[in-house]
Design goal:
By secondary structure, this protein is an alpha/beta fold. The chain has helices at about 65-70, 75-80, 85-95, 105-115, 130-135, 145-150, 165-180; strands at about 20-30, 35-45, 50-55, 100-105, 125-130. It has one domain (about 20-180): Nucleotidyltransferase, domain 5. A five-stranded mixed β-sheet has the order 3-2-1-4-5, sandwiched between helices. The termini are far apart. The relative contact order is 0.20. Mean pLDDT is about 90; it is low at about 1-5.
Length: about 180
């Protein structure tokens, strides 16, 4: 089944969880369907430890608007010599392989990735959304944005709104939420 034909079904910690999962994140030129990816990352975890990282700039084929640069700091000059998403996508799909997928507000990332040519079957794996999970397990937080959850759990991160660093932080958040669920 083509991923674009399937609605995403998010898993909970009640499901049988694999020890192997890939945390994904992207940075974009904006949030609408006409916008494009400028950075893509995946961080592969096995037994709750980082075992591999995929991270690259992407040439979006359009100028990066100043408001987007203000958020993630990626400029046109940064992506000028980067590969296109069509060039990157086969390698990214291979990187994800058959692992479960984790992301914060992961529907946003998956929708962008599907529009950009990702065509992998996610029906036989778990998709975990740490936004959903944080809402379920962290009731007293002021909100459940990744930034808030990073502060809430004192997760160290080098940069915010960069795909690799957000993937690593989301992976750590996932582990903290799993421990809360396991001990509740």
């Amino acid at each position: 089944m083509n991923i674009a034909q399937k609605r995403y079904t998010f898993s909970t910690f009640d499901d049988n969880i694999s020890n192997d999962y890939t945390v994904i994140d992207i940075e974009t030129t904006g949030i609408g369907p006409r916008h494009r990816i400028v950075e893509i990352a995946g961080v592969k975890f096995s037994n709750n430890k980082i075992v591999d990282v995929f991270d690259t700039y992407v040439d979006p084929g359009m100028p990066i608007p100043p408001y987007a640069t203000a958020i993630h700091g990626i400029r046109d000059a940064d992506v000028a010599d980067a590969p296109t998403i069509k060039e990157i996508m086969p390698y990214f799909c291979k990187f994800i392989g058959n692992s479960d997928v984790v992301g914060h507000n992961v529907r946003f990332d998956l929708d962008f990735l599907v529009r950009s040519g990702m065509d992998i079957d996610l029906s036989n794996r778990h998709i975990f959304d740490t936004l959903y999970l944080s809402r379920r397990y962290v009731k007293d937080a002021p909100n459940h944005k990744l930034e808030t959850m990073i502060r809430w759990f004192n997760i160290n991160t080098d940069k915010r709104h960069r795909a690799k660093d957000d993937s690593i932080a989301t992976g750590e958040l996932f582990l903290k939420l799993y421990n809360i669920a396991k001990n509740s």
